[in-house]
């Protein structure tokens, strides 16, 4: 009877160790996603509050090179949305890039568009998450070609 209890106790202890090790292995993934989720919330909140200067600070370095702060601020003045929710966060291996699906409620010309989906690309620079801007530079997409003689 005592050996059955000891065996059962040993099995229970082994299971506890295995489960503890499994939880410990999962924790780094969770801690990586938490700062990103917080950054996304802060970025979206800045846009909702129409604090474009603060929102611009969330852009990654390549986006800041392509889009000047003044250009971004002048193009976003009319932008407006009322609510957002984070649908999904996918951190891509090796952990320095992610895609984030956000849903927004956007009032436009008397209509309320609810649950408009937006995909955002985020990158890690110097240990911190930054969003890649969807704005392009002010260059014209088409150039006029000289007429052939």
Commentary on this structure:
The protein has 149 residues and is an alpha+beta fold. It has one domain: Nuclear Transport Factor 2, Chain: A (Roll), CATH 3.10.450. The protein contains four helices and four strands. The chain has helices at residues 2-48, 52-56, 61-66, 69-76; strands at 83-92, 97-108, 111-125, 128-131. The longest helix is centred in the first third of the chain and has 47 residues, at 2-48.
Please write out the topology:
Blueprint (H helix, E strand, L loop, with lengths): L1 H47 L3 H5 L4 H6 L2 H8 L6 E10 L4 E12 L2 E15 L2 E4 L18
Antiparallel strand pairs: 1-2, 2-3, 3-4
In short:
The chain is of the alpha+beta class. Helix content is 44%, strand content 28%.
- Arrangement of strands in the largest sheet: 1-2-3-4
Highest-level CATH class: Alpha Beta
SS element count, helices: 4
Sheet/helix structural class: alpha+beta
Gyration radius over CA:
24 Å
Mean pLDDT: 78
The total of beta strands comes to: 4
- Characterize the main sheet: 4 strands, antiparallel
- Assign the CATH superfamily: NTF2-like, domain 1
What's the order of the H and E elements?
HHHHEEEE
């Amino acid at each position: 009877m005592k050996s059955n209890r000891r065996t059962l106790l040993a099995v229970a202890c082994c299971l506890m160790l295995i489960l503890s090790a499994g939880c410990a292995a999962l924790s780094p993934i969770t801690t990586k996603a938490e700062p990103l989720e917080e950054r996304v919330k802060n970025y979206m909140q800045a846009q909702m509050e129409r604090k474009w200067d603060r929102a611009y600070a969330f852009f990654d370095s390549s986006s800041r090179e392509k889009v000047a702060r003044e250009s971004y601020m002048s193009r976003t003045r009319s932008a407006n949305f009322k609510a957002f929710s984070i649908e999904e966060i996918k951190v891509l291996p090796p952990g320095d890039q992610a895609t984030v699906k956000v849903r927004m409620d956007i009032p436009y010309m008397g209509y309320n568009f609810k649950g408009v989906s937006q995909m955002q690309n985020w990158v890690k620079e110097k240990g911190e998450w930054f969003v890649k801007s969807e704005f392009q530079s002010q260059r014209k997409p088409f150039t006029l070609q000289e007429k052939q003689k």
